[in-house]
Amino acid sequence: MKKIVVLTGAGMSAESGLKTFRDADGLWEEYPVAKVATHEGWEADPTLVTNFYNMLRKKCWNVKPNKGHQLVAKLEEQYDVTVVTQNVDNLHEQAGSSKVIHLHGELMKVCSSRDVDDPRYQITLTPDNCEVEPGTKAGDGSLLRPFIVFFGEGVPMISAAAEEAQQADIFIIIGTSLNVYPAAGLVQYVRPGVPVYLIDPKPISAGANVQQIQKGASEGMQELCDILLTK
Hints:
Layout: E1 3-8, H1 10-14, H2 27-30, H3 33-36, H4 39-44, H5 46-61, H6 67-74, E2 80-85, H7 91-95, E3 100-102, E4 105-112, E5 123-124, E6 144-148, H8 158-167, E7 170-174, E8 196-199, E9 210-213, H9 217-228
Parallel strand pairs: 1-2, 1-7, 2-3, 7-8, 8-9
Antiparallel strand pairs: 4-5, 4-6
Helix pairs in contact: 6-9
């Protein structure tokens, strides 16, 4: 079975109604990134950061996977598919994708602020219990913080994602500007000659071997599925 690796960014979830962070009306316009998505911001005002992610979680539980998410999951009918996402929502999982690597953390989880990656203190929140009271402690006595890779922090899952990219027979990029590193560098791990498809409504310069489908996530995935899935 051929292996497909799909790299997704904010444009993947935009059609579901989740604002992208970087666009003109994105979340960084309303919330300074330094205050809500850096370690320094967390140290300075953990209450503000906790409440910001509480708000994002509530928004996230009110949206559904779009057709693009569903078509990515549908690829599993004929391919071994790994999704590598820069998004912190769980819409790929909701749509049915079985192998998802989250590069930037998971909005639906909270963790120890002393040791983010210690699984003993990671908690998955549920729709009816998605808010964290500021000041709540993790099992090790430190404050519970969002399980999010803040700007300036290492990206622990990048090595696993790079290994997947090296094994890909087909590589698909959806809804990412390829400006955010280290994720944007994953395309460099794809073996020469492997087809690379880029789905994004904006023209993106991504190299000679990249075929761009200049459409949104759902329309673009429909076009690509018509190519990749045998009837």
